[in-house]
Design brief:
- This protein is mainly alpha-helical.
- It has one domain.
- The protein is built from two helices and no strands.
- The mean pLDDT is 83.
Length: 64
Amino acid sequence: MRAMFANLTRADFGGRSKKELRAVERRRIHALFDEVQIAIYNDDHARVDVLMVKLAFATADRSA
């Protein structure tokens, strides 16, 4: 049992988990999508363009 924990450091027990980071990123992407839908509904084409670029960058980082 001791050998299993021999290589652990203090850093292994701190910070956010990858699962938690993915959840935060997913919520951010959903929020951007909601903003796009609102901008489309309001006929704000300039805002739609800006938000679509932000959404593209947000999803491109994830797929890479």
